[in-house]
Amino acid sequence: MNKHVSIEPFPPWEFIKEELNERNWTQDDLADVMGCSRQHVNRLLKGITSITPKSANELAAAFGTSAELWMNLQISYELSKAKVDDDNIAKRAKIYNEYPIRDLVKRGWIEKPSDVVDLEKSLCKLLNVSDLTETPQLAVAARKSTPYDSHTGSQWLWYNYARKMAAHVSAYQFKQAKFEKGLSEITSLAAYPEGVRQVPKYLAELGVRLVILKHIPSTKIDGAALWLGSKSPVVALSLRYDRIDNFWFTLMHELVHIKYGHVAPVDEDLSGNEESDIEKQANEEAANYLIPKEKLDSFISRHGKLIYQKNVIRFANARGVHPAIVVGQLKHRKKLPPTHLNKLQAKIREHIVGYALTDGWGDSPLAK
Questions:
Q1: Res 14 pLDDT > 80
Q2: Mean pLDDT for the stretch of residues 30-50
């Protein structure tokens, strides 16, 4: 096994002295040979003057060596004297690769770190772990676009911060029967953008805490179902897409996770193709709660490829949901082109922020 042995750097001027001793030359002799002043040679021998490309060529000519030898001796010596703490730099690089530190500081989640030890402590506190090599333990079911068999450091930060926020939200006692009844009725708020204002209070009465937490760059998180305890569910939404159809589908998706007590997957980019069985179930039931499958099937069979705006609006009104929700499901089934009927879309962020505990977009209620 190779062992790293620390060797004291050998100054280049010591090599010059050895060359002089071998030839029985004095400093004056070397000055005469090089055609320079004795003072210049003296400064080289004391290390006051560094070897430059010019003096390297002069020494090479005087001693019959290469100029590269003298330049390499000088550079190697300077590098050894300027050695930094490689381990700390490598550790910081690994942390910066795994976590968006600048974004965390900007959002007030951590203070600007003074050193790598301080940085590790701040991240461990956010992740609720004793060491960054430790895998966080958190009951979470989330909607995401990255592979479902692993979570990134940024995802864990988002989940844990959402959980931290949820601890500051009040809610009634969670009862399964009451929750499932409310789950089938909450879509009555989906007809208008303003309806989302009532969602936080409605969910709190069902024992579910709602928090709005802007996603961390590169996570692509849409939402997550978390658990403060076995009877304390939480829904966290990122509002990554400020659209009413995405809001309601993601919300219902997470509520289905709560209905079944799912704690395994995480949810990013629900429009992605990779789905586990749990996610497929959550997707299907979420869509069905908003628009019963048989009703949408009937609508599609009646209109075929000729789906006009007026038909969508009429159908949405009959189902008690916003037209954009109908459009979203039709596009998911590839019954409408991606650009068709986009004017029916509506923004909801402005309606939910201020009614639910929110972090992001200038709001950081838990930041120090």
A1: yes
A2: 93
Does an H or E element contain 53, and which?
helix 53-63
Q: How far apart are the first and last CA of the chain?
A: 49
Phi, psi of 152 (to 5 degrees): -85, 165
Closest CA to 366 of 123, 114, 187, 109: 109
Angle between helices 116-127 and 86-98 (to 10 degrees): 30
CATH 1.10.260.40 positions along the chain are: 12-81
Position 3 pLDDT exceeds 60? no
Side-chain half-sphere exposure of 358, counting CA atoms within 13 A: 17
CB 227 within 8 A of CB 159: no
CA angle, 202 then 156 then 265, to 5°: 70
CATH of segment(s) 12-81: 1.10.260.40
Distance CA 319, CA 181 (A): 18
**Residue 239's Cα: distance from chain center in Å?**
15
Alpha helices in the chain (DSSP H): 12-23, 27-34, 38-46, 53-63, 67-81, 86-98, 101-106, 116-127, 153-166, 176-183, 199-205, 244-260, 277-290, 293-303, 309-319, 323-332, 349-352
pLDDT digit string (tens) for 157-194? 999 999 999 999 999 999 999 999 999 999 999 999 99
Place of tokens 């060596």: 65
